[in-house]
Amino acid sequence: MMINKQVLLKSRPKGWASEADFEILEAPVPKPAEGQVLVRNHWLSLDPYMRGRMNDAKSYAAKAEIGEVMIGGTVGEVVETHDASFKKGDFVVGMLGWQQFGVASGKALRVIDVKAAPAQAYLGAIGMPGVTAWIGLLTIAEPKPGETVVVSAASGAVGSVVGQLAKIKGARAVGIAGGAQKCRYVVEELGFDAGVDYKSPSFIADLEAATPKGVDVYFENVGGEVLEAVSRRFNFFARMPLCGLVSQYNEANPAGLRNLHAFLTNRVKLQGFIVSDRPELWPRALQELASWVGSGKIKYRETIAQGLENAPKAFIGMLKGENFGKQLVKLV
Amino acid sequence: MMINKQVLLKSRPKGWASEADFEILEAPVPKPAEGQVLVRNHWLSLDPYMRGRMNDAKSYAAKAEIGEVMIGGTVGEVVETHDASFKKGDFVVGMLGWQQFGVASGKALRVIDVKAAPAQAYLGAIGMPGVTAWIGLLTIAEPKPGETVVVSAASGAVGSVVGQLAKIKGARAVGIAGGAQKCRYVVEELGFDAGVDYKSPSFIADLEAATPKGVDVYFENVGGEVLEAVSRRFNFFARMPLCGLVSQYNEANPAGLRNLHAFLTNRVKLQGFIVSDRPELWPRALQELASWVGSGKIKYRETIAQGLENAPKAFIGMLKGENFGKQLVKLV
What span, in angstroms and rounded, lies between the C-alpha atoms of A167 and A190? Predict the structure, then answer.
């Protein structure tokens, strides 16, 4: 009998998640029912939103349950199908979770073209993170040519696409990231106009120098002190798509936003959003992203953990910013 | 020679404004130049935004200068005109400041119909505060029938119109105000569905009881603890027009917003706004407001201070919530 290694949620973390909050288990490979497809996962995506699902709190999506497989986006290969729209050997993207095999309704899977791009890119720049960047920047912030777009977690899966989309739209792109290496990367490899290191003692002055005309768009992934600093640079009518607050997810007392007054006097729009709220936009977003990735206008980098058993450690490292670009787990 | 009593800004307050920050002075009545109109002010409007203008900080409008007449909206009577579109005896609304007489370009004045409504109403429900409510609620929040609209400073010049507009649009209107008397007023006289007293020890529980289906729109005038409490009641896709933060204007360390996470998980839109940014909407807003005031669908209340010399005291009292409804100063 084939074995299906899985990572379950064992306990809900208080503060920082730890490896002890996960449990690794071996289960039988599940059997697909009528209309279902059995997939062997090749890649697991690790994303900051997963930390929120580990809490016992109202959120935009069902929380992960204790003793259940952790939720997560996957790319894999169809090994058995009871849905005629798939065939064995098809590569599909879905939400099959932290496990080696999964079954899902055919409706919850999408066939991908692994000749056009590497399979794992469908979990990154031409997947959920890319669409998140596309929706947040292009439908909420709508940057105009010459405006200044700042994005935090700029070398990450979402942030790196945000800055490159800003450049495509003719805006100035400023990325905030942790450490000189990531800041150099967003400028030298991704083509941002500036990279600002939030860990540097000169962060405030560096941010000011990088935004000489103020900030028109702030694509927010992190919260905390970075948000405070950027909010002091807002121009009138600035827009702030609120995508994540990763610096706060493990804090018992989140920092919030001290400088609310800046939102009033500058007439700023803040809009929380979740990529799954706008399914009607996905086809167009994916098509544009794939074309820009194909033409080299959107580049990306990956950090790859080997083997499912390393997923918890890689996930915790990602929350601390130890990854560089899209964090993946290679399962095969 | 006729005397023009004026109130000047004497010093920029640190924390709470005090009467010592103002100076009362007598000057000659100014002479209108070509294209200008001399107006004898009958009514001066006192509004929370004026506190911001007293600071030496970037804001949406020019700050008040030390030694200059305090800015403010006025209604008065034309006494001399060098602009042919006005005649002596016309009543006009303008921004002539805290003084008995003022000159302005005819372009900065608008003739009002004092037979259709009392002159001072053009500083309230059918003036800037009414248009503020109209723009914030109807163009930013866009409440749908059956949704729950919460407004703070609910018995004030803006808040009272917000709640009544919400009712006109078929929404549930919940007003937050200070003290049982104001809470009774918004329900019994203005027709809100509930009034919640933020000074009551049971405020949190009362707010919960008044919003059994959560909060879809929060029209924010005050900030601080009231904002924290309402943010815990947000429904998915709630909207928060940010009109003012009056509880914070005199604080050296404003409270900000601790519960930023609620804006992410509930996909809330927060939009700072200033009524003067949308001049193109004023004619329609004023027309609708005048019609609803005329038909009794929008009611209002006024607190009237007598004489310009009492303006500083009335202004400070308003910032503390001592007024009831629109705060005015009667000058004639």
Answer: 10
Say how far apart CA A302 and CA A176 lie, in whole Å: 18
- Which of these, A99, A105, A111, A89, lies nearest to A33 by C-alpha position? A105
Residues comprising chain B, all counted: 332
Residue B236 at interface with chain A, using a CB cutoff of 8 Å: yes
Instruction: Give the angle subtended at the CA of B232 by the CAs of A17 and B145, to the nearest 5°.
Output: 130
**Per-residue pLDDT at B135 exceeds 90:** yes
Q: Evaluate whether A184 touches A158 at the Cβ level (below 8 Å).
A: no
Q: Please give the residue of chain A at the shortest CA–CA distance from B264.
A: A272
Locate the DSSP E strands across chain A: 3-9, 22-28, 36-45, 74-81, 91-94, 101-105, 110-111, 148-152, 172-177, 194-197, 215-219, 234-242, 269-272, 302-306, 326-330
pLDDT value of position B1: 66
Residue tagged 């997810």 (tokens)? A249
Q: Where are the domains of chain A?
A: 3-124+300-330, 128-276
* Fold held by A3-124+300-330: Quinone Oxidoreductase; Chain A, domain 1 (3.90.180)
Question: Could you tell me the end-to-end alpha-carbon distance of chain B, in angstroms, rounded to an integer?
Answer: 18
What tokens does B215 get?
Answer: 């909060």
Q: Distance between CA atoms of B113 and B116, rounded to whole angstroms?
A: 6
Residue of B nearest to A243 (CA): B264
Answer whether B258 touches A (CB < 8 Å): yes
Q: Which residues of B touch A254 (CB under 8 A)?
A: 258, 260-261
Nearest to B274 by CA among B253, B303, B245: B245
B156's tokens: 């004030």
DSSP B258-294: S-THHHHHTT-EEEE--GGG-GGGHHHHHHHHHHHHH
β-pairing, A234-242 with A215-219?
parallel
Please give the pLDDT value at position A247: 87
pLDDT band with cut points at 50, 70 and 90 for residue A58:
low
Token reading at B224 = 């601080």
Q: Which amino acid is located at A211 in the chain?
A: T
Distance from the Cα of residue B26 to its chain's centroid? 28
Residues A138, B297: Cα–Cα separation, whole Å:
41
Output the pTM of the full model.
Answer: 0.92
- Which residues of A are less than 8 Å from B60 in CB distance? 236, 265-267
For residues A74-85, average pLDDT: 97
Cα B300–chain centre separation? 12
Which residues does A36 contact at the CB level (< 8 Å), separation at least 6? A82, A83, A103, A104, A105, A106
Q: What is the ipTM of this complex?
A: 0.91
Superfamily of domain B128-276: NAD(P)-binding Rossmann-like Domain (3.40.50.720)
